[in-house]
Design a protein that fits this description.
mainly alpha; globular
Length: 327
Amino acid sequence: MNKNQIKQNSLKAWLLAVRPKTLSGAAVPVLIGIALAYSDISSEFGAEYFNWVPAVLCLLFAFVMQINANFINDFFDYANGNDDTERRLGPLRACTQGWVSVDAMKRAIALTTVIACVVGLPLIWFGGLEMILVGVVCVVFCFLYTTHLSYMGLGDLLVLVFFGIVPVCITYYVIYCSVRYPYLAEDYVPHYCTWQVFLASVACGLVVDGLLVVNNYRDRENDREDGKLTLVVRLGARNSRRLFLALGIVACALGVVFWMNGHLLAFVLPVLFLVLHVYTWLKLKGARPLSESRAAWAATMNNCLGEAARNILVYGLCVVIGLLILL
């Protein structure tokens, strides 16, 4: 796509900067947290006690934070010279292509950060003052990931935490906390989070990390040259492919926790995700080496990246449907 075909700071330019395909990774963990909370609250109290307000706020917060992270990544990769168009294998970026001006991107980062804080602030009413700490940590690590931590090979750990454990468990927590108001006796202490929810959050984080592994697998040569020591760079190509396959298998195996809680379909339906995951792995395994054809490599890897994003959505829908269909 020629940058001259896109007017700077236009709606089309901002849509490209938002990267809509990445939003599934933000939505799925929250949707799983919502489904888990709905299932448990319905079983313990009745569906009428479920509060949709914190559920919607968590989903909005996740969307805004993902957009914020995309803007931050776009800006700092441009500022650090990591978006060299000649070497780039992935989709073109807004700042580097001139679709969005640097000053406009700075303002967008500030605006989305403020919006995320405004959206997340009412969660204090449901989850307590500790929600402030959760919000601050999310914002801080949103910046640290692009500027420092991704270069240290910590990206996969951060995905597990911030696209698995934090969104699933915190969403469940604030929704379950909302049951206190005004329905229950003051001396009642509901189980705000359970080990089953934690295992489900880990499974979700592993699924989402598959997207990062494919992204870093595609860019491993450029990352090595730039001194960006991602986990893929450290492991090498063969072990990285094994890691990608293992992420899907382990995530589905952890789904046994759903079966133990009486939701057999939430354990069985993600087999569809696993089939798609293995298909993507086979494409990774059979891809033509980068040394043979840069264009063919980029096309295959970007296709796999799109499949990985789709697989995340399939996994999320399978789990959510499995949790709710018997209610």
